[in-house]
Amino acid sequence: MKKSVLNVAKLEAAASKLRAIGHPMRIAIIDMLNDEPQMNVTKIYKGLGIEQASASHHLNILKTKGVLISKRDGKKILYSIKNAALSEIIDCINRCSDY
């Protein structure tokens, strides 16, 4: 049996991303982006029924931790999920919460 070598830097990066998505509002944002791959902050905060400042705060955390990416489209900034694997994590959370 081959013993795997743990890469501490990768583990720390993974833990950082998991902490970033570990908030109910951030899970909801990622879930929305699963359904619609690109959204601006207005659509997100209205869809969640929260204040714009709160949505911006959560989006900034997700972007800083490498969960989301953004691109400018005129005056709007569109957010999307950086890695499809993160969508799978949210799908798993949703399946687990059905029990």
Description of the molecule:
The protein is of the alpha+beta class and 99 residues long. It has a single domain (9-96), classed as Arc Repressor Mutant, subunit A. It contains five helices and three strands. Strands 1-3-2 form a three-stranded antiparallel sheet. A hairpin with a 2-residue loop joins strand 2 and strand 3 (76-81). Helix 2 packs across helix 5 (84-96) and helix 3 (41-48) crosses helix 4 (52-64).
User: Which descriptor suits the 3D outline?
Assistant: globular
Low-pLDDT sequence parts: none
Biggest β-sheet: strands ordered side by side in the sheet: 1-3-2
Largest sheet features = 3 strands, antiparallel
Please indicate the count of domains. 1
Q: What percent of the residues sit in helical stretches (DSSP H or I)?
A: 55-70%
Give the mean pLDDT.
89
If helices are DSSP runs of H or I spanning 4 or more residues, what is the number of helices?
A: 5
Distance between the termini: 35 Å
User: Radius of gyration, Cα only, in angstroms?
Assistant: 15 Å
Can you give me a brief rundown of this structure?
This protein is 61% helix and 14% strand.
Keyword list:
99 residues; Arc Repressor Mutant, subunit A; 3-stranded antiparallel β-sheet; 5 helices; 3 strands; 14% strand
Protein topology:
Blueprint (H helix, E strand, L loop, with lengths): L7 H14 L2 H12 L3 E2 H8 L3 H13 L3 E6 L2 E6 L2 H13 L3
Antiparallel strand pairs: 1-3, 2-3
